[in-house]
Design goal:
This protein is α+β, with helices and mostly antiparallel strands. The protein has three helices and five strands, in the order H-E-E-H-E-H-E-E. A five-stranded mixed sheet has the order 1-2-5-3-4, with helices on one face. A hairpin with a 2-residue loop joins strand 1 and strand 2 (38-41). The N and C termini lie far apart (31 Å).
Length: 153
């Protein structure tokens, strides 16, 4: 019996994750721009986690917030591509962490996003990454992530 390669959607299902419709833009912008075989997403925050890391939000909650932000980004990709198996490579993610001045574990928060991308896409999910602290994010969301993705033509 041959090993069947699981689709990203099958991996998401195994993880108990359902992709819904993407969140609506709340300004004069779009949720992504596609140029050639690259997709640049707008930042996706989270509705479930509000506050500053290192103050109202702890590291574990920050990890979960980053994970949820990537789920929101995957909803955008799924809507555009129809199927996530068209993802050739997750190129880069930028994580902006709403953090108290003394908080220094931004990379540990962003592991929530990176771990999920590798779980879903395997080698194609390995990416370059930046994790930075912000004084404030819109609606006091705990995190906002944007992504660059290479897709099949």
């Amino acid at each position: 019996m041959q090993n069947q390669v699981k689709t990203p959607e099958a991996k998401l299902e195994e993880l108990g994750i359902t992709l819904l419709h993407p969140r609506k833009s709340v300004g004069n912008y779009v949720s992504f721009v596609r140029t050639g075989n690259l997709i640049f997403t707008s930042g996706q925050g989270v509705d479930q986690y509000h506050g500053k890391l290192g103050a109202e939000i702890n590291l574990e909650e920050g990890y979960l917030a980053a994970r949820q932000s990537v789920i929101n980004l995957l909803c955008v990709l799924k809507e555009e591509l129809g199927q996530l198996s068209k993802v050739k490579q997750i190129v880069k993610i930028l994580g902006m962490v709403n953090s108290a001045p003394e908080f220094i574990d931004h990379p540990k928060v962003m592991n929530g996003a990176s771990d999920l991308l590798v779980d879903v896409f395997g080698e194609k999910g390995k990416h370059a990454r930046s994790a930075v602290g912000m004084a404030q994010l819109p609606n006091n969301t705990a995190i906002e992530i944007e992504m660059i993705v290479e897709v099949e033509d």
